[in-house]
Amino acid sequence: QQQEQQQQEQQQRQRKKTKKGQPANVQEEPGTVQGEVREDGGGSHSSSEGDSEGGEDELKADGQAGGKRQDKERKHLTPEQHAEQLQRTIFVGNVPAKMPLKTLKAFFSKYGEVASARLRNVPVDLKSKMPKRAAIMKNKVDDTRAPAVAYVVFKEAASVQAALAANMCELGGNHVRVDRAAPPAKAAASTAQASHQFDTSRSLFVGNLHFATLDEELIQFFTCPEALEGNSELAPAANGGLPAVEGVRIVRDPATSLNKGFGFVLFRTKAAVRAALSLNGRPLRKRPLRLTRVSVQQQQKLQVQRAAAAGANTKGPRQQQQQQPQP
């Protein structure tokens, strides 16, 4: 009875925090580690964001919901240790939201021994009234709304370079995006590592997306047989046997995980970009897509938005709006 009473009190405290917006559920920018990556796959803590909860939507490698450590005596990694660990970490995008972490670890273990893995930005059922962390533990996950992202930490830094070869390989039915993990946005803004940007000369802006469009749908749009007709530059044969698409970024609402109607696509070659422009106006989910090259104005606007978001991270817990990813 005592344990049940403690659990009820803990749940009440969690509900109060959720109502106050602490921590708010901020969607991370792909390729960016928002805080500390722990050896054992535990919660992420970011001093730049003032995040005391470690993210409600985080899953640890053992399948349990991540969050604040019960062991308060456990010390955080030093900046030097965190920087070293960052060199051993990869970002994995477009991960099926219900992907078991054991499967994820097994997939990347062929590139080197995996120390830990964790999921972030897991889309839970919007009808669920329980806190997000609890909803994830109860498997109240809506994988039809958005994919999740993951961070995989290797034992050796050399494994990261090998794992980059998995970019756009199929995992659980999705073509995953694999990149080196980047520092938090604020830290990266003042260094040469200022985020993993898409090469604008090989990128397209995609507008008029249906708000339920998934990353995988956009990848398939540019790689399906219909798209390849008359566009040999989009064929795998013209791209080293790999898909012409190298990466996709769809901007999403942090509260619902639904996209905001636009995104960016990175291609392997400039020739593939020119070929993809011929698909302008073709429908996806019954909506004609608007395909244009990424303009200087768009790039500058996104840079300003990202800088503002990075500055807002110093104002307290994660209650800021989603920062727009750069192309």
State the CATH superfamily name of the largest domain.
Answer: RRM (RNA recognition motif) domain
Looking at the chains present, what oligomeric state does this protein adopt? single chain
Query: Which strand order does the major sheet show?
Result: 2-3-1-6
SSE pattern, N- to C-terminal: HHEHEHEHEEEHEHHEEHEEEH
Mean pLDDT: 76
Task: Give the helix/strand class.
Answer: alpha+beta
CA-based shape: globular
CATH topology of the largest domain: Alpha-Beta Plaits
Per CATH, the class of the largest domain reads: Alpha Beta
The total count of helices amounts to 10
C-alpha Rg, in Å? Answer: 20 Å
SS elements, strand count = 12
CATH architecture of the largest domain: 2-Layer Sandwich
Task: Write down the domain tally.
Answer: 2
- Secondary structure: helix percent: 25-40%
SS strand fraction: 15-25%
User: What gap, in angstroms, lies between the N and C termini?
Assistant: 54 Å
Could you please describe the fold and organization of this structure?
The structure is a single chain. By secondary structure, the protein is α+β, with helices and mostly antiparallel strands. It folds into two domains: 24-196, RRM (RNA recognition motif) domain (Alpha-Beta Plaits, 2-Layer Sandwich), CATH 3.30.70; 200-301, 2-Layer Sandwich (Alpha-Beta Plaits). It has ten helices and twelve strands. It has helices at residues 2-20, 79-86, 101-108, 132-137, 158-163, 185-189, 215-223, 225-228, 270-277, 296-312; strands spanning 89-95, 114-120, 148-154, 170-171, 174-175, 177-180, 203-207, 245-252, 259-267, 283-284, 287-288, 290-293. The chain is globular and about 70 Å long.
